[in-house]
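debug: dumping io for the single-chain case to check the tokenizer round-trip. Nothing else runs in this session.
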Amino acid sequence: MTKARYIRLADVIGASIQEGRLAPGTKLPTHRAFAEKFGIALATATRTYRELERRGLVVGEAGRGTFVRDLGVPVTLGLRQSAPDGLVDLVFNMPGDAGDPDILRAGLRRLAVAGDLEAMLRYQPHGGRRHERKIIATYLSQTHGVIDPERLLVTSGGSMDWR
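debug: decoded output
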């Protein structure tokens, strides 16, 4: 008995992921574009992506897309994945590592007692506060070389390509 078409497609895409031809962080085409490319029904494309997700090869987020997972990161750690080309992915607003909730909890406690918590809950200056940009620049400089904090822009919901 031959395999269902969506299983055969998942096998082909899965092999590309496992062999490294599709790098972690690669965004897959939309279901509709995938269906058009392979001449299949939209439902078959959706089943293919579900099968890839079931196998732990991709991760999807409604409204954002489907991405190749970093197979070196356990699925149980959630959505955090490596970005391609050494980019820092700041998309997910959630802890990604097992120890992050404890670090976040401790940081929030320090923040609550460190000063004017009410002010922290209000709108902040456009582009971010200077000391926050310095903290971010210091962190990013560890992997991206020296970064001038004055060239950083802290935004809500934005992203940046470092190339």
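debug: round-trip ok. The radius of gyration is 20 Å.
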